[in-house]
């Protein structure tokens, strides 16, 4: 844009060599729901100039910068950056053409200075030689410490200079600095401005800098004064002060605010104020020879139209390998710099799986049971029968009838086993005689009273007493034991073994659940924290897309998941002797797919939620319902039908069933119950990834 199209008649005209505009904003609006943050904003940044964007905190400066670099879409209006709209296919804004220094620095604390600059060099496509040369120059130029100094060990001023160095690394044509001097001592503040003045001397680099320290912006070539989402005035600092007969920029800014409040066009204290008439100056009743410091576009200005062919658009959409590789290396380097956290990630699933195998599904042990035995003879059948009870599970306490029942009522014992004084003779009659009286039947029976408040213990006691009686009968009657046995014979099982316990049922589902939820938690927290620290925004401004970010995280987490799965399988198969009759490869693939589903769901949470507390609540909120409804700790067949339909739609229900069929039945993909688990898991993976991508696109 030529100088004659700039804000007219400024007393400090722009040099002809620098008359083209680096940034043009025309009637830009940006809203968050009903809240207007930018309203009919017009702004021009001349090529090769420092543009100071001034205004109080909350006036919309950072939002405007995000719109300029293309990480936020405007609600209405038009923006061109270095000749094309931001995020236009084939245009490297965001990308290599723009250097961005956010207000919150956005540096990886685990990196050193060399790692930081190398990371951004990879994203910008610099060779190792080019990156090293620029690194050496910037360390000297910005007076940085040694390149192997960790970011976490640097002072605030040193970190700010490293952040500036990352923005300058690729020699960008446009440098955008958001509050670079906030919280910085005056000496460093002066040095930063000195650097900016040196950078723009060639006329090839343009700088836009935001600050609420109004007076320091007098060093800029052009200033724009913002308030409540409006640009009140734009021009060289001296012209702005002279126009208002002010000795300081701050005084001029206050006069502009008072003038706008007094006129009919009022940007009130709320950003929801009506749009400004961009053709009107804020200096009512001005003389014709007065400078105009208005903010409207030149009359009759035509907005350019841009187009890109399908090949350029395709390259713009497809992920770039160098960015994915740079992000992958970044994640792996961060892991290596945090060995404690990495070991915790590897060992946590092993610890959880081991606790489940040790603590869930086994038989209760050390259960105290009161025994009331009215037979006194050492050769009595009651003594022989009690000797067959499993002493590792049941601890027998001989008591009187009164003490035994008092003990159960007081919670000291889980049951009472009682024998009549004629138990041996009556039981012999029951076994030898075809017809006996009711008295003989009752006297020859073992009487058991149980505390059924704990069903698992009660079921165990019933089974142990039944097994003990069967062993007693076999011992006493030998080949004639069938006379008093139930006419039911359980043959060898088709699948599984006679000694299969509940732990065997729980283990496959527990492995899938642990893999899924660890991936959810790590992914959600990782992305939320990176967004909170401004790291994601900085990567996106450097040209990284949301798809590339997700792919890099997926690949890096796959390595973590692979180690976790290997350790879990080693423990459950070799240490806890969990049976596996099928293909171990199929089992591993299914567990990995569940881990990817967890990563994908974590991406959805992190895309939709901004703070870690809410992300944790979302992850924990779906943990227990999914654990209960997915048939992991209790069979799906026990769930009532309205909820069973919901259960079958969850990611782990069919997957758990599939893994059990692979491990315990030896089935392959030809069986529906196996391939159905893979199909449902792949479906959820696809859904979560698409949903996360859509949410990220909508939010940016």
Automatic annotation (TrEMBL):
Keyword Transmembrane helix among record annotations: yes
Gene3D superfamilies listed in its UniProt record: P-loop containing nucleotide triphosphate hydrolases (3.40.50.300)
ABC transporter domain residues: 23-253
Polar residues bias (residue ranges): 262-282
Alphabetically ordered keywords of this record: ATP-binding, Membrane, Nucleotide-binding, Transmembrane, Transmembrane helix
Membrane-protein topology: Multi-pass membrane protein
Location of this chain's protein in the cell: Membrane
InterPro entries, per the entry: AAA+_ATPase, ABC2_TM, ABC2_TM_bact-type, ABC_2_transport, ABC_transporter-like_ATP-bd, ABC_transporter-like_CS, P-loop_NTPase
Residue span(s) of domain ABC transmembrane type-2: 470-699
Top-rank taxon, per record: Eukaryota
Residue ranges, annotated region (Disordered): 262-298
Membrane-spanning segments: 505-529, 550-576, 582-606, 618-636, 673-696
Molecular functions per Gene Ontology: ABC-type transporter activity; ATP binding; ATP hydrolysis activity
GO cellular component, one term: ATP-binding cassette (ABC) transporter complex
Name of the protein in question: ATP-binding cassette sub-family H member 1
């Amino acid at each position: 844009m030529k100088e004659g199209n700039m804000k007219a008649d400024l007393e400090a005209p722009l040099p002809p060599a620098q008359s083209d505009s680096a940034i043009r904003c025309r009637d830009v609006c940006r809203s968050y729901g009903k809240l207007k943050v930018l309203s009919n904003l017009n702004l021009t940044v001349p090529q090769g100039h420092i543009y100071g964007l001034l205004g109080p905190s909350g006036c919309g400066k950072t939002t405007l910068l995000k719109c300029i670099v293309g990480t936020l879409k405007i609600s209405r209006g038009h923006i061109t950056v270095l000749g094309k709209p931001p995020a236009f296919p084939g245009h490297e804004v965001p990308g290599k053409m723009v250097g961005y220094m956010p207000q919150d620095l956005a540096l990886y604390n685990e990196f050193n200075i060399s790692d930081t600059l190398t990371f951004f060099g990879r994203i910008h496509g610099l060779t190792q030689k080019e990156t090293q040369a620029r690194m050496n120059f910037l360390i000297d130029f910005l007076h940085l410490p040694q390149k192997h100094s960790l970011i976490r060990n640097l002072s605030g001023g040193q970190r700010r200079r490293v952040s500036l160095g990352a923005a300058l690394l690729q020699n960008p044509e446009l440098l955008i600095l958001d509050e670079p001097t906030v919280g910085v001592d005056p000496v460093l503040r002066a040095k930063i401005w000195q650097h900016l003045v040196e950078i723009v001397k060639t006329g090839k680099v343009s700088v836009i800098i935001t600050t609420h320290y109004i007076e320091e912006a007098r060093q800029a070539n052009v200033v724009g004064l913002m308030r409540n989402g409006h640009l009140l005035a734009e021009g060289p600092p001296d012209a702005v002060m002279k126009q208002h007969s002010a000795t300081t920029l701050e005084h001029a800014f206050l006069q502009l605010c008072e003038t706008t409040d007094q006129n009919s066009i009022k940007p009130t204290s709320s950003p929801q104020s009506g749009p400004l008439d961009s053709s009107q100056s804020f200096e009512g009743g001005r003389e014709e020879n007065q400078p105009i410091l208005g903010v409207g576009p030149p009359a009759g200005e035509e907005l350019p139209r841009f187009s890109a062919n399908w090949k350029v658009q395709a390259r713009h959409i497809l992920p770039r390998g160098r960015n994915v590789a740079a992000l992958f290396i970044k994640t792996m380097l961060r892991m290596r710099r945090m060995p404690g956290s990495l070991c915790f990630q590897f060992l946590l699933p092993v610890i959880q799986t081991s606790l489940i195998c040790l603590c869930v599904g086994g038989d209760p042990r050390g259960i105290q049971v009161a025994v009331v035995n009215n037979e006194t003879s050492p050769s009595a059948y009651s003594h022989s029968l009690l000797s067959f009870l499993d002493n590792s599970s049941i601890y027998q306490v001989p008591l009187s009838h009164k003490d035994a029942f008092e003990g159960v009522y007081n919670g000291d014992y889980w049951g009472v086993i009682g024998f009549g004084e004629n138990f041996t003779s009556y039981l012999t009659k029951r076994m030898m005689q075809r017809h006996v009286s009711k008295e003989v039947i009752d006297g020859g029976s073992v009487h058991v009273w149980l505390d059924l408040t704990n069903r698992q213990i009660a079921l165990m006691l019933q089974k142990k007493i039944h097994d003990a009686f069967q062993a007693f009968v076999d011992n006493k009657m030998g080949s004639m034991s069938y006379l008093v046995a139930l006419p039911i014979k359980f043959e060898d099982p088709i699948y599984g073994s006679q000694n299969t316990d509940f732990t065997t049922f729980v283990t496959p589902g527990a492995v899938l659940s642990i893999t899924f939820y660890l991936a959810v938690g790590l992914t959600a927290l990782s992305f939320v924290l990176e967004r909170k620290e401004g790291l994601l925004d900085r990567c996106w401004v450097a040209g990284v897309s949301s798809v590339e970010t997700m792919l890099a995280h997926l690949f890096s987490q796959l390595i973590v998941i692979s180690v976790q799965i290997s350790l879990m399988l080693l423990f459950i198969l070799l240490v806890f002797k969990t049976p596996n009759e099928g293909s171990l490869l199929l089992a591993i693939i299914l567990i990995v797919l569940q881990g990817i589903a967890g990563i994908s769901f974590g991406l959805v949470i992190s895309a939709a939620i901004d703070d870690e507390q809410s992300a944790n609540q979302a992850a924990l909120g779906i943990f227990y319902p999914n654990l209960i409804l997915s048939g992991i700790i209790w069979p799906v067949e026990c769930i009532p039908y309205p909820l069973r339909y919901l259960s079958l739609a969850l990611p782990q229900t069919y997957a758990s069933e599939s893994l059990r069929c692979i491990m315990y039945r030896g089935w392959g993909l030809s069986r529906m119950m196996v391939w159905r688990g893979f199909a449902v898991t792949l479906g959820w993976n696809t859904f979560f990834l698409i949903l996360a991508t859509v949410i990220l696109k909508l939010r940016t």
